[in-house]
Amino acid sequence: xxxxxxxxxxxxxxxxxxxxxxxxxxxxxxxxxxxxxxxxxxxxxxxxxxxxxxxxxxxxxxxxxxxxxxxxxxxxxxxxxxxxxxxxxxxxxxxxxxxxxxxxxxxxxxxxxxxxxxxxxxxxxxxxxxxxxxxxxxxxxxxxxxxxxxxxxxxxxxxxxxxxxxxxxxxxxxxxxxxxxxxxxxxxxxxxxxxxxxxxxxxxxxxxxxxxxxxxxxxxxxxxxxxxxxxxxxxxxxxxxxxxxxxxxxxxxxxxxxxxxxxxxxxxxxxxxxxxxxxxxxxxxxxxxxxxxxxxxxxxxxxxxxxxxxxxxxxxxxxxxxxxxxxxxxxxxxxxxxxxxxxxxxxxxxxxxxxxxxxxxxxxxxxxxxxxxxxxxxxxxxxxxxxxxxxxxxxxxxxxxxxxxxxxxxxxxxxx
Length: 416
Fold this sequence. Notes:
- By secondary structure, the protein is α+β, with helices and mostly antiparallel strands.
- Helix content is 41%, strand content 15%.
């Protein structure tokens, strides 16, 4: 007999059994967030999870996706007027691409799967992309081959809708059970629960008032004077958090003494170190160097190196996932036989400063590479007559310098 501890476990088990049908009671089982898929609770309660996941999602979503047509193995042309290119720059009305891909990326990071439904207007050929929240869809696939048969989603009214995989851009990560991926937060469940308990402890500590490791004693069998007990109790309540006398000295009655005791102190828990280690672990689970999200202190040199790694080793695999999913599941259908493909413009993120680019380009080409009008356009200035001609110094044109960045020409050549 199969037993389930929560509705989430039942929902996960159902994802592995395509032959089992269930009538939803109006609220989809996938909307119940529990310990198996603690995505929503993790974003609400774990600042580190939100910081790391949104760091990756922002990095991926800020990369523009361009459409190209392959002319030959050594030549390609960027396409901007094709419906596919327009869909990349405007997925759906009033939704800009950054927010769209950011939400899709968050689905991938939190649930290890994403689904985008596409449609094309038969009259205008306009392509519209619609994101299906990961919590609302389930992938049904062949148990032997893993081929996706259908995608089931549940509306807010509780109706089950079956989506055609041919009309979806869908992907799910590896899972030992089923075909719906395995959330990284499930693997980190114990660490996340430990972090929540530590936060609750600190809240309880500050709610009850910061306490010193001391106790108040009075002689045994000593009777209370009239009203002394009630007076001391009021003083003690005022001394606690919210009483109005926090931080003041506690007034003792006659015969009372305050003695220090060896108690469990908050500093013994290494709270800051524990939070830092948890954040480092979460960063590592998402393959993000902790220095990039501030979980570990870095130097200028290694931070610069990590910045170069961001779009290669950190966000690079996620960007490749989007590229391959689009080019495998959408591009061949809407390309009308043309050799089109979508590629992320990662170079726009890896470019250095203008000074670095100018120096590298001048050294690589052996001559100035920017016209006056191109330089004026960078400053939002109008073109001038004759500004489209490339001005090349004579010493560079003659080639009497080892490098176009050299300032001194060959003395022997000058004397001649």
